[in-house]
Design brief:
five-stranded antiparallel beta sheet; 2 domains; elongated; alpha+beta
């Protein structure tokens, strides 16, 4: 990477750092969600769509609405980290069956920021794997930039 400008490496490290902060916050919310209050949500939409590309997987999407303290909220998070994963046909059909349009289900919501909500507390393993990969990239870039600047 000797031909890569230092500024480009610094910008890449900054972007990786911002991504890492976002992922750390998502993991934090995922584990905190086990303790969050719940409300009754109504499923507005539940769908299974092909992931696209060369993948044979599917993407499950859900949207729901609920009210807390007179404030109506709409959410679309099944579980933190779920958006990073595709599902097979059987799992997708089970999800669509578990969250049919019009069904009433519990939703876990942040006590203060109601739009931060999820139907399933916790996280999917993909979120932690992605966090570790971004963190490793960030450590590598920062170390490389520090060594490069020390030799200049």
């Amino acid at each position: 990477m000797d031909g890569v400008p230092t500024l480009l490496l610094v910008v890449t490290a900054a972007i990786a750092g911002i991504g890492c902060l976002y992922l750390v916050l998502a993991v934090w919310y995922a584990f905190a969600s086990y303790q969050w209050p719940t409300a009754e949500a109504t499923i507005l939409d539940s769908a299974l769509t092909p992931s696209g590309g060369d993948s044979s997987g599917y993407h499950f999407s859900v949207s729901y609405t609920f009210s807390v303290r007179g404030q109506k909220v709409t959410g679309d998070t099944l579980q933190f980290g779920h958006a990073f994963e595709s599902v097979n046909t059987d799992t997708g059909r089970k999800l669509v069956s578990a969250y049919p349009v019009g069904a009433t289900v519990p939703v876990y919501h942040h006590p203060r920021y109601l739009h931060t909500c999820t139907l399933r507390p916790g996280t999917r393993p993909a979120l932690i794997v992605i966090l570790l990969m971004v963190l490793a990239l960030l450590v590598f870039l920062v170390n490389y930039i520090a060594e490069r600047l020390a030799t200049q």
